[in-house]
Amino acid sequence: MKKYMLQLVFTMVLFFAMVPVSAQNYATHAVKEGETLKSISQKYRVTPYSILQANKEIKSASDVKENTILIIPLTGKVTETKPEQKPVNKVEEQEEEVKPIRFIRHRVKRKETIFGITKKYNITQDQLKRYNTNLYSETLDRKMILQIPVFPEVDPDEEKELDFEIYTVQPKETRWSVAHKYGISVDSLLILNPALDKTTNYLAAGQELKLPRPKGDSLKGQKTDLFTSYTVPPKMTLYSLGREYGIPTDSIVRLNPEIMKQGGLKEGMVVRLPKKRDAKGEVNTENFIFYEVKPKQNIFRITQNLKITREELFRLNPALENGLKAGMVLKLPKEKAKELEVKNALVLDKINLVDSINVENRPKLVFMLPFRLDKVNVADTEKAEELIKNRRDLALSLGFYTGAMVALDSIKKLGVSVDVKTYDTQLDQAKVKEILFRENLNGVDAIIGPLAAGPLDEVAVQAAAKKIPVIAPISSDSKLSHNNVFFSVPRDAVLRDKLLSYMKKIHKNENVIIIADSTHQVAHDSILSKFPAAQIAKIIDNKSLHLDRFLIQLSNEKENWVFLETDQPNMVASVTSILNSANTRIGETGEGKQTKVRMFTTSYNGAFDDDAVSRTHLSNLRFTYPSFYKENGNDAFVSAYTKKYDGLIPDRYAVRGFDVTMDVLLKLAYKKNLFETSKYIGLTEYAGNGFDYLNDWTSGYFNRACYIMEYDNLTIKEVEQKNDIKSNL
């Protein structure tokens, strides 16, 4: 019995699903040679306009070509409306077709009106009178009994849901690749899936997304649909055809109503189907990069900017046949990433932040730094100066803040007003909690600081609840995961990879030697992975070099590249002295061959700046290292700083304060949302620091901008590299 009940339910569902299709009374027509829009309209006794209305992809009569599949409205419902004709009210037509599921009795009360009753029961006056025919001739009287029709509740989204499907994210796919696959913009993707995090582009493999069915999958919204004609082969079923084209069978029926009229899919039948989607699932970040079309762009400008031919662009993006649209996501070959600026698989436009300022944006900025006003006695100048000199945190905070003030002056001259609040964290996590409890952070666009890890974590957690970005002035990472923290100092791994990639690129046959103490095993292994033939120097007691063994490892035939990985000043001073001597001595063969030595490190630290280390030796060895800071060459900043602070020369902390603050302010002046801006802005450079943040999903935003610096003639300069990315400043 249960089996027959299931069959009955299935039959009823199928019947109701097919009623609207036959009710539409459409037919399809395959255009034959010599046929025109006019001749086809005469054949079916409809107007040319009605055919164009039913086939939105056909813009004019010239688009009607041989083998084009047209939908023909046989009933003439889609016809030209004459000026004197009253347009058909489709809502009323639908209401006529809907039958009430039951009735309720209503006794008319004193002072009630027909209008009031219809509003109470959410029906129309026509519906009320249709089931109470006496109201056509009688007035409404007190105590009159009316039967009120109750109609089935219709979910307004029910029909819309037919145009959507659930998509499972594949590995290495991004929002850009999924948007391209479905021919929608990323903004549309976010609207359809409001649960997606607005602060990140991350998609997890296996995540389910609501997405529109392929274009042309229904009769609705066919403004830019691409269709193809398909001749049904033997033994083809609706199910197998839908599977082949990746669309549901009910959508095939909607596009081809004659299927139901002829009792199903028949061999030799010519049907109208949307062009196939790429079902390979290979549109991901491993083999493509993506570009989001901006308003007012044209094909010519895009091909110029993306360094791609028109033919190749159209081959990769067939949807362009329907025209270029703002928000469209285009895919490009992965190899183009070498020529373009790419971030998270998205090609970035070159945006000049200074020229892109919106003066209506008024950033609200908060500084949280350890000024240690609880320790500094301003009245005692001598002690205050001594304290500042001996406390690095205090010197850093004050230097950073003086540079930040110059940045605020600079942005003001550009016409941008900034609301600023500054708090002294006193290098105390309890003090930070007190500030956060006392002060209202609503409306704050960014927080710069604190310096220490504990206070930074405290601020990051509370700011995350209000979706406020936090910029860490000197931190490169955190033990906790913060998706709202911008770590402005690159990680050690980024710096190390920067130098090693550069050296691997220029390496020919140089003799590579590694000197690394036990605390720098990661650096040791990283160098060895790049240069497997490197020799390992022996270190005694983790403090000094085994000199005799080392000298034997040096080559007189090749240039020697020596990596020194340590944070001990004495070891740095000793090794540089030894290498400097070896660099100038004559080979023992007596043939006058000179030993050439260059020194490198992947982990630059304070040991190399120690007073015991000779700058002359470093210069002779052309000492080269990676750094997030380059020597200040911005005369405009130095001039503004010395003018503001009575001739004082800015130190490294002041330069960093200016750069970090200016970067934040310019980005907020461009778009008042640092999370959004970080998606579209690549490398920015200022007086001595660069910023190129990569969003690492839940862990935060990490700066990848760094430089390769080299000692040369007692000065430090940046190593020139080809194909460097230019700044967006």
Describe the structure concisely for a colleague.
Helix 22 links the parallel strand 22 and strand 23. This protein has 729 residues and is α/β, with parallel strands linked by helices. Helix 19 runs parallel beside helix 20 (521-530).
What does the model show?
- InterPro entries: Leu-bd, LysM, LysM_dom_sf, Peripla_BP_I.
- It comes from Flagellimonas abyssi.
- Belongs to the leucine-binding protein family.
- About 35% of the residues lie in helices and about 15% in strands.
- The chain contains 26 helices and 30 strands.
- The longest helix is centred in the N-terminal third of the chain and has 23 residues, at about 1-25.
- The radius of gyration is 36 Å and the shape is extended.
The neighbouring-strand order within the major sheet is: 14-13-15-16-17-28-27
Low-confidence stretches: 1-24, 76-97, 154-162, 215-225, 586-590, 722-726
Distance between the termini: 76 Å
How much is the average pLDDT? Answer: 81
Helicity range: 25-40%
What is the overall shape? extended
C-alpha-based Rg, rounded: 36 Å
Structural class category:
alpha/beta
